Every structure is written in C-alpha cells, then in structure tokens.
Amino acid sequence: QVQLVESGGGLVQGGGSLRLSCTASAIIFSISTMGWYRQAPGKQRELVAHITTGGRTNYVDSVKGRFTISRDNAKNTVYLQMNSLKPEDTAVYSCNAERWVGGVRVSSWGQGTQVTVSS
After folding, report:
1. Cβ distance 57 to 46 under 8 Å?
2. Rounded Cα–Cα distance for residues 97 and 40 (Å)
C-alpha cells in the first residue's frame, strides 16, 4: 500500500505562512506527478497545485502568486509553501501522487492535514 505522509498544517492568522510537506516512497515519488488538493466544508475538492516529474507546475488561479509547490527528489518530498494566507484558504489539504502504470492512471492520497486561517 502506497503511503504518503503529510505534515505542516495548523492554525495561522490571515497574512501568515505555512509550509506543507508530503513524503512518499522513492519508487512512487520518482514516477509521479505530485499534487496538493484541498477541500473546504461544504465544497468540492479542488486541485491547488501540482508539479510533474520534470518540474512543471500548475496552480489554481486563487493561489497564484501566493503558493509555491516544489519537489525535492533526493528526499522524495513535495512541499507547498503558502504565503499571504486568507481565511478562504481554510480547508483540509491532501497530498496526491498520480502516475501511469501499465496504461492505467493510478492515484494515491495522503491522510490530509487541516489548515485553518483566522481573520
């Protein structure tokens, strides 16, 4: 079973910063596009950002210029640096590892970490 171990959530005041981390096994990490998703109460889960094995990144419009996703291939870890946090960023953030295995898209998830931004 693939394990994605997340850390870094918490409570922060608006305008503050947090950094989320997600570590995967080396084999999975090396072939996966890594992403961060979030789900706020009463809302659908949305992709926040992802980074490919080649380092290409993509962000949802609402976090562009504030969040940065990066990956450390030596540590098998993906990070989400979140700056200028807003109350509307409050959600459970989950790490995702997506890869193709034998022509089938396989997706693995972390347990989720709560991010709460106070106004």
Report:
1. no
2. 20
Give the CB-side neighbour count of residue 15, counting CA atoms within 13 A: 1
Reading the chain (119 residues) residue by residue, the pLDDT tens digits are 668 999 999 999 999 999 999 999 999 999 999 999 999 999 999 999 999 999 999 999 999 999 999 999 999 999 999 999 999 999 999 999 999 999 999 999 999 999 999 99
Give the span between the Cα atoms of 110 and 13, in whole angstroms. 25
Question: Using an 8 Å Cβ cutoff, are 79 and 19 in contact?
Answer: yes
Regarding beta strands 91-101 and 77-82, do their DSSP bridges make them parallel or antiparallel, or are they unpaired?
A: unpaired
Distance CA 94, CA 118 (A): 20
